[in-house]
Write a structure and sequence with these properties.
Layout (H helix, E strand, L loop, with lengths): L1 E9 L2 E7 L4 E5 L6 H10 L16 E9 L5 H9 L8 E9 L4 E5 L2 E3 L1 H11 E4 L4 H4 L2 H9 L4 H27 L4 H15 L5 H15 L1 H16 L8 H14 L5 H30 L4 H20 L5 H66 L7 E6 L17 E6 L7 E2 H4 L2 H19 L3 E5 L7 H14 L4 E5 L3 H4 L4 E10 L2 E8 L3 H11 L7 H16 L2 H5 L1
Parallel strand pairs: 3-13, 3-14, 8-12, 12-13
Antiparallel strand pairs: 1-2, 1-4, 4-5, 5-6, 6-7, 9-10, 10-11, 14-15
Helix pairs in contact: 6-13, 7-13, 8-12, 9-11, 10-11, 13-15, 15-16, 18-19
Length: 572
């Protein structure tokens, strides 16, 4: 229940602390005094848009705070505990919203800063606001379904929950598929072709370099062979006479060894020559080995030339200036192909899961439709009873389900169903959609009836009606006032009205006045706690600004007849 509303520097309000009571709270005042400012301020606590234009002139910020009470173990209590936002008292919560000239907005719950979505979430558990011009939006498809769903039984709500879980998973997978963004089939094919072409050589990165080195070696083979032959000739000699370096060193060393007694210096020289002789022999072995390597077969020569020619062709085709660039391109293609094929496979896997979730959502959606058809019968019967109490004695109400488009069910957050509310207000008239069958005043009463049954089911503690009396008057206004009074026995009701036939039913009456002082204008809210004050206000609403005796007497009679219920005898 809304206990107190504090408004500071908001539009034409300086500072106002407005207390509300259980039951039926009525707000009245001349047109233009600022009655709807109260509703607009409360709407801020529901997360509605708030801008700099709402801040009072010459002020830097505006603040709206609402104190609400609620029963223990309620959805509000559970929500606050889950979020860790409990207040000092277990059954009270303070919501606040501050707007600044800098464009910043601050939302708080029990004095702690929260996100706007959190404020909106808990606000919707506490408060329902019905503003002017809501007729068309009230009958939007999602609102029609929401009203119907208030009449689902336990099995229906369980089915509803299962449908939503599968639908939410289906939409998550749909978003994930879009986010994957795999390449086209043409791009995959292009990558595969290029990769296969570069891989057709069958070479590793190291083998590319070895082939080129071998090719260069072949190109230089003749020169190398000549150099090695000359070196080998130098070492071993080119005839059998032993004129090579190795043979000569061996003879000198042998001679020195035979003259070992000549002196120690010659012995050292002989040993040094032995070392040189060994190294020369080793060089000879290496030269012989290199000569063997230069002995390429014809087949090997052809293979190496063909491989190098293909490498050069592919380098030119793909714009690679060096072998290193060519190897890098090969690796890049490999990685890109792997990545894109993984993305493609991931998308296909997600699509498989999505189709399974879609299948499950459709299955539970059709079960939910069956539950809703049972709920529609209960809703139609309850609404017919409700409208009977709002002066529609002969009305017939029904919920009609629209067929699937082209025989195919459409998945939506609300389910597979699209429903319309049909009504016949007079005997013999065929049922028609509510928006077509009802006039403005009739539509206001029908919406009141629908909201009455829906909000009782929803458990929201406070309902705000901003000028629900549009287009009605006379005895119909009594019916509306009486229904609001009865509704207030189950939930707190706050109603802004211009009609004394409604205001006379109030448990608590507030009046909004606009004050002027030189160039300063502000709105003030007064509680009419005395009966005489209420009588005077009702007389003003009847059009008697002078509060003359007949008008005052009639206003007093309105209060008395509303309290006694005797108006039904005259207007029923």
């Amino acid at each position: 229940m809304l206990e107190e509303l504090a408004i500071r520097n908001y539009v034409i309000v300086d500072v106002q602390y407005i207390r509300f009571t259980p039951g039926f709270n009525v707000i009245t005042g001349e047109t233009g005094t600022g009655k709807s400012i109260i509703v607009d301020a409360l709407s801020l606590l529901l997360g509605n848009r708030g801008g700099e234009d709402l801040i009072r002139k010459e002020r830097q910020s505006a603040l709206v705070e609402g104190l609400f009470s609620f029963p223990g173990c309620s959805p509000v209590d559970t929500w606050l505990r889950e979020k860790g936002l409990e207040g000092e008292l277990d059954t009270e919560v303070v919501l606040s919203r501050e707007l600044t000239r800098q464009g910043k907005t601050r939302s708080r719950i029990n004095g702690r800063t929260v996100t706007l979505s959190d404020l909106k979430e808990v606000g919707n558990l506490l408060l329902d606001v019905s503003s002017q011009g809501e007729h068309e939006s009230f009958f939007l498809p999602r609102h029609r379904i929401a009203l119907l769903d208030t009449f689902l039984d336990d099995e229906g709500w369980e089915t509803h929950g299962k449908y939503r879980r599968h639908f939410n998973r289906y939409t998550e997978l749909q978003r994930a598929i879009v986010a994957v963004d795999p390449p086209s089939a043409e791009r995959i094919e292009e990558l595969r072709h290029d990769w296969a072409e570069l891989s057709s050589l069958g070479l590793t990165h190291d083998e590319y370099r070895e082939v080129e080195e071998e090719f260069q070696m072949i190109a230089d083979a003749q020169l190398l062979r000549d150099v090695l032959s000359e070196l080998l000739s130098l070492l071993n000699g080119d005839d059998l006479e032993g004129r090579g370096v190795c043979s000569r060193i061996a003879r000198v060393r042998s001679t020195l060894e035979s003259l070992a007694d000549t002196g120690e210096a010659y012995a050292h020289l002989s040993e040094s020559l032995r070392v040189v002789e060994v190294e020369m022999q080793e060089i000879g072995y290496q030269v012989s080995a290199l000569q063997e390597k230069l002995a390429f077969s014809t087949e090997r020569l052809e293979h190496i030339e063909k491989t190098v020619s293909e490498i050069e062709r592919l380098k030119r085709k793909h714009g690679c200036r060096t072998t290193e660039e060519f190897i890098a391109l090969h690796e890049t293609l490999k990685n890109e192909l792997s990545r894109e094929e993984t993305q493609r496979a991931k998308k296909e896997e997600l699509e498989t899961y999505r189709e399974e979730e879609k299948k499950q959502a459709l299955s539970w959606g059709r079960k939910l439709s069956a539950c809703r058809r049972e709920a529609a019968a209960r809703l139609g019967e309850r609404l017919q009873q409700e409208l009977g109490q709002l002066a529609f004695k002969r009305a017939e109400c029904m919920v009609r389900f629209q067929p699937e488009r082209d025989g195919e069910a459409l998945l939506t957050p609300e389910g597979l169903d699209r429903v319309d509310f049909f009504i016949s207000l007079n005997p013999g008239e065929p049922p028609a959609p509510v928006m077509e069958a009802a006039s403005g005043g009739e539509l206001s009463r029908i919406i009141l009836g629908m909201k009455s049954i829906a909000r009782v089911e929803s458990g929201v503690g406070t309902i705000i009606f901003d000028e629900i009396d549009q287009g009605i008057g006379g005895k119909t206004a009594f019916w509306v006032g009486e229904r609001l009074k009865r509704l207030s026995r189950e939930q707190q009701v706050v109603c802004i009205t211009h009609l004394p036939q409604i205001a006379c039913f109030a448990d608590h009456h507030l009046r909004v006045d606009k004050r002027f002082e030189e160039e300063h204008t502000w709105a003030e809210v007064f509680s009419l706690s005395e009966k005489a004050e209420r009588v005077e206000e009702l007389a003003r609403m009847l059009g008697d600004e002078e509060r003359q005796t007949p008008a005052l007497q009639y206003a007093e009679k309105l209060i008395h007849t509303a309290a006694q219920g005797s108006w039904k005898k005259r207007h029923g």
